[in-house]
Amino acid sequence: MNPLARSARYLRILRALAAHTLSRELAFRGNFLVKVSVEVLWLAIMLAFYKVVFARSSNVAGWNEPQYLFFVGCFFALNGLIEMLFLDNCNEFSELVRTGDLDALLLKPIDEQFLITCRRIDWGCAPNVFMGSGVMAMALYQMSWRFDPVKSAAFLATFACGVAIAYAFMVLLTSLSVWMVRNQSLMEMWWLFSSLARYPKEIFSGRWAEPLGMFFTYFIPILIVVNVPANVMVRAFDPAMVLMMLVATAALLWISRRFFLFALESYRSASS
Amino acid sequence: MTPPEAAILMPPPPRAIGSLPLAVKKYLAIFRASLLERMTYRADFLLGTILRFLPMVTTILLWRAIYAGSGQQSLAGFRYREMIAYLLLTNISRMFSSMPGLAGGVAREVREGTIKRYMIQPMDMIGYLLVYRIAHKITYIIMSFIPYALLFGVCHSFFDGFPDLATLGEYALALAIAFVVGFFFEASVGMVGFWFLEVTSLLYIVMTLNFFVSGHMLPLDLLPEPWSGLLKLLPFQYMAYFPAVVFLGKAKGAELAWGLAGGVLWSAFFIVLSRVLYRRGLRRYSAFGG
Fold it and tell me: Can you tell me the ipTM of this complex?
């Protein structure tokens, strides 16, 4: 099958899976509404924190109030997208390994990584993407931002790269479940990662923090996930950083793919 | 003789069975079993505990940037070092007050009907859960001791040394209140399961809100009035804020006395509330099937 037809086939499958999970979600509308209200509450808490901070400070690590607001919105939207598309699927992987239910998925005539990591869409997190976008729009309005096609295109590209990098990290962590069946702490590792991405990377300054910041920018590039798209849009447009992000995305997607396949080779079925 | 069906529907018998040593023995056996259960996944648990400290690094860096941006030495009476000490101490408060799985567990027992074991066995459900939780908390505190000692050792410069003995005593009392309020508050939320079978969603909302209103995220003093004063009247502050400010010596004299009195009152309130909800819940509870 040529790559184009293959992509079209996977897109069709993704659409069918999305429709299926949406119908499941709508069968439990009350639960869906509560999930959304928890997310609204969480955003409200993040904004309250931001308001309290800027009531007493004019800037945080060189980010002024509307710039920081944009950063918060960007993080919320990006994290929402990751949670919506991949988090639940990856979280379930260790249970599939433990029970041996993974066998059934491996027998399907479809790419294993696609099936395992994209099987379900958590529609309860979909509003996060819109809410995050709303916060970003509000921040742009506050700073009287003028539309710039180059910046906007670079933002969309780096935002997509941010999602891909976060996905690659999640796949790497998920793959470890094959060896460490109980990966509750590995998912906590994910929360650690997202907490690193939650703040501007300029806070990593000083004697011991700067090397740490460099480490998480160039070696394990989790700091660039939200920082680069937010920077591109509302602060300095740094082509070198954008280029680095593109390279990091390609490299991490490749590494995580290889590692995932290697992990599957080590899988020993638990059933029968 | 009481038919078995009627026995299931009856409220739990009063704790008449057994002499005191037997009752103690019974709860000691539960304590031991819970202790062993908690030690099964120790590597996983230790790893999780260590990782939980890592976001502390970003928090320290963020607050340093906030203080630098404000150009002030003190925000709402907290100097930078005190702020970090406060945020570190809220982790200790939460170690005592957080009760993962308690409310969800109670609601699940109601939903699945396993709650009837407390009705036919000479055991009080809240008593059982309390002992079970104490065992888990003790293992958690013992196993977290090394990583916490390491964290506080590394961060010792944020503290002005150890407080005096009197303050330490008050702090121990505040932590005990944190545990009691945390346990009975969540047990009460779990009892709601008698009326609404699914409380997980309610629990998510309560826990998310609690993160902010308990002062876990930032000291309540930083909030503008009337929010700051209002939140200090609510029970949630005892789960994070209050023990931390007691340790830092920020609550003294009358303020401390009122704080402790409030904590005792809220503890009593939730102990009674969980009992009342349990009694009433059992009255409307109906078990079907074997």
Answer: 0.87
